[in-house]
Structure formats: C-alpha cells, structure tokens
Write a structure and sequence with these properties.
The protein has 208 residues and is an alpha/beta fold. Helices cover 28% and strands 29% of the residues. 46% of the residues are buried.
Length: 208
C-alpha cells in the first residue's frame, strides 16, 4: 500500500506497453508496479489498463482469474485509467466486438474498435485535454478506437476531428491515444492526482 501522498498504482501486465506506463507513472510521482494476479490487484490504489490488443487482454484476464476481480474493484470505485485497448476494456459496449470479447466496464460509453484505421495508418496529433494544463498533449494513435457515444454522467475531455478520444466518469479515465509513448507525463499526472484524491479509503469503499 501507499504512504501518504504517494499512491501505489498498478499496470495490468498481461499484454501491451506495460513498461512505458510504469515509467510514466513513476515520473508522475507514483509507486508503479505490474499486476498479473488478483492478490496483486488488491494491493494497489489505482490501475492502468494499457494499450495492446483488447481481445487478447480480455482472454488473458479470464485466464489469470482477473476479469471478475477487475469488475468488482472498478464498481467499488478503484481509480482506473485505460489507454487505447484499455479504453475498450472500460466501455460498457463495443460496437464491433470479436467473438467472445468481454469488457470490464466502468464508463457508460459505446466504442468502435480500430476506428482510426489499421497499424500502418497510425499517426500523432496534438490533443487538448480538459484538466491537463500547459497546452495540448501529443497523442499517439495506433489502431486506435474512438468513442461513439457517452451517457449523461460521462465527461468528454478531448476530441480529434470530431470524434471523442478522452473521457472520464468518476474515478475512471480513458484515452484513445498513448500518452505513455511521448515522454509527456501530464495525463499520467492527472490520473495520479485522481488516485491521490480518492485515497485508500475511497478506493476500497465497498470493495471485495
């Protein structure tokens, strides 16, 4: 567990760019550690679900016994941040899911997988994110999803070319893009502040 003011934040280490998130979280003044087991999930104050392949992450979460604990912790209010595939994992509904694909949920949104194109159509773009000071962040979009629609309780934080690419609902944050790949740690600092504000008590209120 964390010491006062220094939250312990896990990165779901089943698949994807785990190392980059660990580095970005440490740069944003958090204690960062990989999470692969339910008992490790119970020892962190917040969690990042990284980019990668959402179908693979879903299947591995079941294989490692993490899917139901993830759902329970997110429902209980654990702060969680999903990037790219992680955004898909936090959606309540996917427009074009692959067979057997499941999500953790936590944000009342409908998402479209690979909406910005295939791997060879990846790009970078400056994105103004509400709550992140100092000007736009450089967003790396790799087979990125976008958010088709959101519920009334979801705050839209950023759009790109008319499509929603960053959202927040309570303690859950999600971006279509990868801020961990740019060396700009301001989005991670926003999430660390969310975790710090929630605190261990808020994180685990009603938790399993």
């Amino acid at each position: 567990m964390s010491t006062p003011g220094t939250p312990v934040i896990g990165v779901l280490a089943l698949q994807g760019d785990v190392r980059e998130h660990l580095i970005a979280l440490a740069a944003a003044d958090a204690v960062a550690r990989p999470v692969r087991r339910p008992e490790e999930l119970a020892e962190v104050d917040g969690l990042v679900i990284p980019g990668g392949e959402s179908t693979t992450i879903s299947k591995l979460a079941h294989l490692f016994g993490l899917m139901e604990p993830l759902r329970e912790w997110v429902r209980a209010g654990m702060p969680v941040y999903g990037t790219c595939a992680g955004l898909i994992m936090l959606a309540e509904k996917i427009l074009d899911p692959r067979s057997g694909q499941e999500t953790v949920g936590g944000i009342d949104m409908i998402v479209r997988r690979n909406a910005f194109g295939r791997q060879n159509e990846s790009f970078e773009a400056a994105v103004a994110v509400a709550g992140v000071g100092g000007g736009p962040v450089e967003g790396v979009f790799i087979r990125a999803p976008w958010v088709e629609s959101v519920g009334a309780e979801v705050e839209v934080l950023a759009e790109h070319e008319g499509h929603i690419v960053a959202v927040r609902q309570g303690n859950a944050l999600a971006t279509s893009f990868h801020p961990e790949l740019t060396g700009d740690h301001r989005v991670h600092a926003l999430f660390v502040d969310m975790v710090r504000t929630a605190g261990p008590e808020g994180t685990r209120a009603g938790a399993p």
